Structures are given as C-alpha cells and as structure tokens.
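I'm stuck. Protein, please.
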Amino acid sequence: MKKMFLVLMAVLIGVASSTVTLAQDAPQTDTAATEAPAGDPAAEGEAAAEEEAAAPAKEESFHYVLKQKFIEGDWMWMSPVLLCMIIGLAIVVERVIYLNLASTNTDKLLVKIEEALKSGGVDAAKEVCRNTRGPVASIFYQGLDRSHEGIDIVEKSIVSYGSVQMGQMERGLIWISLFIALAPMLGFMGTVVGMIQAFDAIEAAGDISPSLVAGGIKVALLTTVAGLIVAVILQVFYNYLVSKVDSLINSMEDASISLIDILVKNQHK
C-alpha cells in the first residue's frame, strides 16, 4: 500500500505541476496570437473576430478558469494549499482502497469456519482464515491458533490483535485531519498578506483608489476560497473514511463474539 500511495502522489503532483505550467504559459500564447498579424488589416479583423468567437468558449472552460484564478491568487500562497489537497487526496485514495479490500462478509466466513471445525478441526479452520483476505480473517486466525490454550486466552488474543488491526485501519486519518485544518490556515495567511499589500499600495500612493487595492484584495479572497474548498473536500472524504472504519470495527467485534461461541460449542462437542 505504501508503493500505491507513492504512485498516487507522483501522479497527482505531476498533474498539478503541468496545470501550473500551462496556466503560466497561457497568457503568453494569447499575447503572441494577438501580436502576430499586426501588418495586415484584414488579417487583424479576422483575428479579432476569431478571438471574439473563442472568448465565450474560453470563459466556459472550467480548467481555464482554475488556471487563471491560481495565477491571480499568487502562486506563493496558492501552491501550499494545492499541495495540501494533493497529499490529502493521495492519502484518501489509498485509505479507500485499503478499507474496501479489508471488507469481508463475516457471516459467510463464520459459516466456513464452523464447517471446517466440524470436518477437519482447528487446522482446517485456520486454513480457511489463511485463504481469506481482510483483518477479520487475521483476527480469527490468531484466535484459532490459541484455541488449545483455552477460551480466556482466545479472547485476550482476539482483543490484542484486534487493537493492532484497528490501528492499521485508522492509519493516515490523522494526516487528513491535519490538512483539513492546515488548508484554511494557509488561505487565511494569504488573506492577511494580500490585505497588507493593499495597505502598502495605499500608503505608497498616498491616496485610496480601487485600482490600487484590487490586486491585494483579490489575492486575499482567492487564497481564502482555495483553502476553504480544499478543507470541505477533504472533510467529506474524512467523514466517509471514519464511518467506514467504524463499520469495520463493529463487524470485527460482532464476528469475534460469534467465533468464541463457535469455539465453545466445538469444545463441548
């Protein structure tokens, strides 16, 4: 799973870096396109008409708008927010894949284990657990491996190994919560810096003019919006992962109680 996480991060960072590069090159391309046909009036008229026709499509392009807003928000403050989203989403994707692979149909597994205990004993039941994927099967294997030591030892083994599996399922969630808190903070920091730039411009000019403060205020608002959007996206995924972990833990606890009941019945027989 660590390799998968690194691959996801590399892909997301590559996509983000290409987006930033294209965004920085876009204004230069547009400028070159407008400056090229300067010598021919007819060509200038055609170019202007084509530019007017292409303008609505460019405005409707969501990707183009994102690139423009990223540049207008100042890359120095937008890049850390973007980095929080990239790393956070990489962790989210890795955790979603891990938790979905960890899901097990505990009812079917318990039926298989009970049938294996009846037909082949503990060794056959352990083989069923060994061939089943997921933390529940791993916990069952640890309990069956200690079944000859008594039910009390089995319960302690299940509880101890269950705690280990819970830790593995909750791994990475603390980092997602960190980025949820960090992204708005970075956005607000950009807000403060943008307002400082606006007041510096006013102080340097000695007069208040909308054109003087517009740039600083735009940086302030864009960084704030970017940080809040990242926090909202990661918060939704974080709540989903927490609910998924809680569901798996409840399933593990119920299945562990059922396994102990099966072992008690098997010992009595």
